[in-house]
UniProtKB/TrEMBL annotation, chain A:
Membrane-crossing residue ranges in chain numbering: none
Record keywords, A-Z: ATP-binding, Ligase, Nucleotide-binding, Protein biosynthesis, Transferase
Subunit annotation: Heterotrimer of A, B and C subunits.
NCBIfam families: gatC
UniProt GO molecular function: asparaginyl-tRNA synthase (glutamine-hydrolyzing) activity; ATP binding; glutaminyl-tRNA synthase (glutamine-hydrolyzing) activity; transferase activity
Name of the protein: Aspartyl/glutamyl-tRNA(Asn/Gln) amidotransferase subunit C
Origin species: Thiohalophilus thiocyanatoxydans
Catalysed reaction equations from the record: L-glutamyl-tRNA(Gln) + L-glutamine + ATP + H2O = L-glutaminyl-tRNA(Gln) + L-glutamate + ADP + phosphate + H(+); L-aspartyl-tRNA(Asn) + L-glutamine + ATP + H2O = L-asparaginyl-tRNA(Asn) + L-glutamate + ADP + phosphate + 2 H(+)
Domain of life from the UniProt record: Bacteria
A Pfam family recorded for this sequence: GatC
Annotated function: Allows the formation of correctly charged Asn-tRNA(Asn) or Gln-tRNA(Gln) through the transamidation of misacylated Asp-tRNA(Asn) or Glu-tRNA(Gln) in organisms which lack either or both of asparaginyl-tRNA or glutaminyl-tRNA synthetases. The reaction takes place in the presence of glutamine and ATP through an activated phospho-Asp-tRNA(Asn) or phospho-Glu-tRNA(Gln).
Gene3D superfamilies named in the record: Glu-tRNAGln amidotransferase C subunit, N-terminal domain
Family: Belongs to the GatC family.
GO biological process, one term: glutaminyl-tRNAGln biosynthesis via transamidation
From TrEMBL, chain B:
Assembly behavior: Heterotrimer of A, B and C subunits.
Organism: Thiohalophilus thiocyanatoxydans
Gene name of the record: gatA
Domain Amidase, chain residue ranges per copy: 22-463
Protein name as it appears in the record: Glutamyl-tRNA(Gln) amidotransferase subunit A
Pfam families: Amidase
Length: 95, 484
């Protein structure tokens, strides 16, 4: 799969990733060669193979539904870029 | 003191030859005087380390010391440490002080170990040379013009240069074993689910596993004893009893069946590395083991499958870095989309961006089956090859990495060439198997690693197989010049 400039722009948008205009051709080349390498998988017929989600076929453990964590809001918000009165602040979304 | 193993340090601390405070001070001084040559640490814990060392000495005086009490170690900067910067090698987390400890860290703290600091690493553990770190590359202590491997390159270099007696690492595609090989230390990636991933910053959740980097297999056993075990806070942690990994060390290897991976002796393998592996196998035969050639016919699918699964999972995991709740935020965002895009665009390096984009593409509408499902199918074929092999052999061996340490900058501009540095290590991650790298010689004065892969939960056997080899060889005892 060879990707062009518009493919890279679309992927970067989906990933919410700002990339500069000058870097786009480089990413298009890199991503195309990575996908080409990945497509070596296509040489093997896997139609009858069940995809493997876990090497030991483990399943998610369940536990009793009860509160296990205490409120540590202040502690966790101490590392936030911008908070006020317990709320995370971001630029205005609704005018 | 710094030429000693954990086992020897424990004996000296017990006999009162020196205190934990003296030992910790000695390592902190070595870091201060030697690490400018290597850049193996991002953060040194200085004062906090001495406080913990004094507490360990008090514990010992009270007769409450365990086998690891008062012994210093370094943590890869991917493990959250309460109150100590946890950067994951990224500008994104350059300002991040974790509000809690990773389970690996809290377990080793409970065992009385003293954190010396946090080691350098490839950004978000994505790299095989430690050159993607926001904090600059780590140099290999055997030749500072070469890379230490990655992503746990700081941990491997610090242990090799004796700037820490041991360190933690994580291994998603070879990130413990490959740097261990390139720096001449012992590294163990346990079975997937053996060690808790809680508080270990996630890269590819179905592959990530934490383990020790040490001088010896005996030390790796000591650390794994403390690190391993079920953790209800990690939903993929497996609830199985943890054996005493030290108990079986020294057991006879007579009759051990070693499978040698035919496919790993390919044209990409350096001749000197192949010779070192052959010489190691000759040692094992002298120890009574039998060597048979085995085939893993789907092993060539490992790198392609990995570069779908790992980026796909990384693109999902790294979506949490949004500039809102923690980590880097861009200046003066105009709106929410600008906040997300510029914060992520400015704080992630090029390799992290590449992998996020590959993963985003592989998971996007219309491509999911062709890439992600296909890779998960290939993954089962790779796993089944190992399952079949372990019906007739006890352990599997081969080279850890295709060459000794390469030059800084040599592969930095070519992602695919860099990815092939992990060609022999990735399969064990895809299959979830435990695997080690042990020092097995030198090529052009650079260390070579022997890889030993075990069956699920067979870490005790792996450690003994490595230990017996280390009893009859001294590769693991060599110290790079300038760091003696």
């Amino acid at each position: 799969m060879s990707l062009d400039k518009s493919d890279v722009e679309k992927i970067a948008h989906l990933a919410q990733l700002g990339i500069s205009e000058v870097d786009i051709p480089g990413y298009a080349d890199n991503l195309s060669s990575i996908l080409e390498m990945v497509e070596q998988m296509n040489a093997v017929d896997t139609a009858a193979v069940t995809p493997m989600a876990h090497p030991l076929d483990a399943v998610q453990p369940l536990r009793e539904d009860r509160v296990t964590e205490t409120d540590q809001r202040e502690r966790f918000q101490a590392v936030a870029p911008s908070v006020d009165d317990g709320l995370y602040l971001v630029p205005r979304v609704v005018e | 003191m710094h030429d000693k193993t954990l086992a020897e340090l424990a004996r000296d601390l017990n006999s009162g030859t020196y205190s934990s405070e003296e030992l910790t001070r000695h390592y902190l001084e070595r870091i201060a005087s030697h690490d400018s040559q290597l850049n193996s640490y991002i953060t040194a814990a200085t004062d906090a380390a001495l406080v913990r060392a004094r507490a360990a000495d008090e514990q010992r005086a009270a007769g409450e010391a365990g086998p690891l009490t008062g012994i210093p170690l370094a943590h890869k900067d991917i493990f959250c440490t309460d109150g100590l910067k946890t950067s994951c090698g990224s500008k994104m987390l350059d300002n991040f002080i974790a509000p809690y400890d990773a389970t690996v860290v809290s377990r080793l703290n409970e065992a009385g170990m003293v954190t010396l600091g946090k080691t350098n690493m490839d950004e978000f553990a994505m790299g095989s040379s430690n050159e993607t770190s926001f904090y600059g590359p780590v140099k290999n202590p055997w030749d500072t013009g070469t890379v230490p491997g990655g992503s746990s390159g700081g941990s491997a270099a610090a242990v090799a240069a004796r700037l820490a007696p041991a360190a933690t690492g994580t291994d998603t595609g070879g990130s413990i074993r490959q740097p261990a090989a390139l720096c001449g230390v012992t590294g163990l990636k346990p079975t997937y689910g053996r060690v808790s991933r809680y508080g270990m910053i996630a890269f590819a959740s179905s592959l990530d596993q934490a383990g020790p980097l040490t001088q010896t297999a005996e030390d790796a056993a000591l650390l794994l004893n403390a690190m391993a075990g079920f953790d209800p806070r990690d939903s993929t942690s497996l609830d199985r009893a943890v054996p005493d990994y030290s108990a079986g060390l020294g057991a006879d290897l007579t009759g051990l069946k070693i499978g040698l991976i035919k496919e790993h002796f390919d044209p990409g393998l350096d001749g000197g590395v192949a010779d070192a592996v052959d010489a190691a196998l000759a040692e094992y035969k002298k120890l009574g083991a039998e060597v048979v050639e085995i085939s893993l016919p789907n092993t060539h699918l490992s790198v392609p499958a990995y570069y779908v699964v790992a980026p796909a999972e990384c693109s999902s995991n790294l979506s949490r870095f949004d500039g809102v709740r923690f980590g880097y935020r861009c200046e003066n965002p105009t709106d929410l989309a600008d906040l997300y895009k510029r914060s992520r665009g400015e704080a992630f390096g090029p390799e992290v961006k590449r992998r996020i984009m590959v993963g985003t593409y592989a998971l996007s509408a219309g491509y999911y089956d062709a890439y992600y499902i296909k890779a998960q199918q290939a993954r089962r074929l790779i796993r089944d090859d190992f399952v079949r092999a372990f019906e007739s052999v006890d352990v599997i061996m081969g080279p850890t990495a295709p060459s000794p340490a390469f030059k800084l900058g040599e592969k930095a501009d070519d992602p695919i060439t860099m990815y092939l540095s992990d060609i022999y290590t990735i399969a064990a991650n895809l299959a979830g198997l435990p695997a080690m790298s042990v020092p097995a010689g030198f090529v052009n004065n650079l260390p070579v690693g022997l890889q030993i892969i075990g069956n699920y939960f067979d870490e005790a056997r792996l450690l003994n197989v490595a230990h017996r080899y280390q009893e009859v060889t001294d590769w693991h005892q060599r110290i790079p010049s300038g760091f003696e």
